[in-house]
Amino acid sequence: MPEPAQASVMFADVSGSTRLYEAVGDARAHAAIDRCIRLFSEVTARHNGRVVKTIGDEVMSVFPGAAEAAQAAREIQACVRDMPAIDGSRLGVRIGFHHGPVVERAGDVFGDTVNVAARLTELAARGQVITSLETVDLLPAIMRMDCRRLYSTPVKGREKEIDICDVMWADTDDATMVATESRGTRAQGRLRLACAGREMVMDGERKSVVLGRDAAVDLVVADRMASRAHCEIEQRQGKFMLVDRSANGTFLTIDGDQEMVLRREEAMLRGRGVIALGQSRATAAVLVEFTCE
After folding, report:
1. Strand intervals (E) in 134-186
2. Model confidence over 175-207: pLDDT tens digits?
3. Domains identified in the chain and CATH numbers
4. Cβ distance 168 to 186 under 8 Å?
């Protein structure tokens, strides 16, 4: 059996489409999203890549090397940023990529590399490019200078956690400052939580908060679908990570994005949004609102 080919797999996911549909209507929103999808394809081709498939608002591409994928990801972010607003509303893009062995069949690609790239895209914020530390190690030295290690995260199918990195793409003073920070250092922000009339703030003093139904946890959520110690929010290097530890899953909605379900998984909190324990926010009796400050 031949050895699997080595390639970089990248996912580019349009962010903010739900809000755009609500703001400007189906026809104009669809046209704007279609422009983004075409842009992803054009940039991919310019960097010697190939579009594998389009899944809704997401494009999966494959590149021969990590450098080509990184260059394409950065260009896509810059192009989407420069797109004109539609009645004051803008789209964004979340990108994740990973280099490793892939199995190609009938034009599609499969394997662990694809799974890792998809997971990294889930962790990316709007306007962010995420990759693995092992992929960063394959980049030219000058490109590695624009990468910053964030934290380690579990990936389905892998025994060990992987280290993830932020690929800086904006040519600004802020980007330069962050890109040159040493690993593990960043000014810490605050996270404000509100639930059933009670407020709690996570800052430099409080490193974690446990949410659940039990009276002994930090923030009690009185919902019959919630586990006793349902989930935890951990502060890691200035990031607030939501970690599910429940039987029924933790439902996370970040403003501008669709609801996602965490099942023994974790995700980074950003901006504003809502957390529901054990069921969708649409049916939950109690919601936890969060704001990253």
Report:
1. 147-153, 162-167
2. 433 333 333 334 347 899 999 999 999 987 788
3. 5-179 (3.30.70.1230), 191-292 (2.60.200.20)
4. no
